[in-house]
Specification:
Rossmann fold, about 35% helix, about 20% strand, 2 domains, five-stranded mixed β-sheet, 14 strands, 11 helices, six-stranded parallel β-sheet
């Protein structure tokens, strides 16, 4: 799987280089660099400059044309380009996948739970975890099985109870583990202190009555709990340590590392995560970084 990195031009005070960049900017010429073990597209713009919709559209067309030549459909954009919504929207419309760290977040779910419980001074093997899931794809199944084998009680809340039967049977037959599967919107989450939300949308999760001090880990997107009684924590993203050998100037560490594991299943991805000693440094909520005392 080929993944292309896209970023703005390196800023320079060199008059000649800036003049050349102006010419490239006029013709929307993209520089392509393959010297760092990655393919990087350098756009003829500098970080911090305002980009018009017209310019964003022109650059998008050039990017898409180059991606077609390279046979690539997955990209990583720099921190700066991530702020240019029009450019990203144009790529989305062409079914270009922009990596956002969410797959890595899913692979690190177990570490996120450990991070939270450590600050609550609780043992994960004595914990009660609830998982919200409707799509029982291979990755979600692997994750559910991994968590079930390492916690005291696992509750699955889903609109597709029948689809969970295979996992129920497997866990019981192979390990003697019993999981609770339900979809009672009034009671399923009332006693759930830690909720792992794999794929429930804001609209769907707000149909359930939730324990007012619950800690919710939202894997696939940012979620807002609308209940006025809710005084818990929404974990929407994360920060990791990244080995120096992987770091790439101008790019978010989480997305750079995701590009290294994106082609692998959960089992293989977690092998690499363990090998590289990837750790959770910070968790991010609706109001920024979550402090340890909030989790306590």
């Amino acid at each position: 799987m080929k993944i292309i990195f896209i970023k703005e031009a390196e800023d320079t005070c060199d008059f000649v280089k800036r003049f050349i960049l102006k010419i490239k900017s006029f013709f929307n010429i993209i520089n392509i660099d393959n010297s760092q073990g990655k393919t990087i597209y350098y756009l003829p713009i500098f970080a911090g400059k305002n980009i018009t919709t017209y310019r964003a559209n022109k650059l998008s067309k050039k990017i898409i044309k180059n991606l077609e030549k390279d046979g690539a459909n997955n990209v990583v954009v720099s921190k700066y380009l991530d702020t240019i919504q029009e450019l990203k929207n144009n790529l989305y419309r062409e079914n270009i996948n922009i990596l956002n760290g969410r797959y890595l977040f899913k692979c690190l779910t177990f570490e996120v739970i450990e991070y939270v419980l450590k600050r609550k001074k609780k043992d994960i093997k004595l914990s009660n975890i609830s998982i919200l899931v409707n799509d029982f794809n291979d990755i979600n199944k692997e994750l559910i099985i991994h968590i079930a084998k390492n916690v005291k009680t696992l509750n699955i809340i889903t609109n597709h109870i029948n689809k969970c039967k295979n996992i129920e049977n497997y866990l019981y037959d192979e390990f003697g583990i019993i999981i609770n599967v339900s979809n009672n919107k009034k009671t399923s989450l009332l006693k759930s202190e830690i909720i792992l939300n794999l794929d429930f949308s804001t609209e769907l999760i707000n149909q359930y009555k939730i324990y007012d001090k619950a800690i919710i880990v939202n894997i696939f997107d940012k979620i807002l709990i609308k209940s006025k009684k809710f005084n818990g924590i929404n974990i929407n993203y994360f920060k990791i340590n990244l080995p120096k050998k992987y770091k790439l100037e101008g790019f978010q560490n989480e997305v750079v590392y995701e590009s290294l594991i994106y082609q692998y299943n959960l089992y293989k991805a977690r092998e690499l995560i363990t090998k590289d000693k990837i750790k959770i440094l910070k968790l991010i909520g609706n109001n920024g970084y979550i402090k340890d005392r909030e989790l306590q």
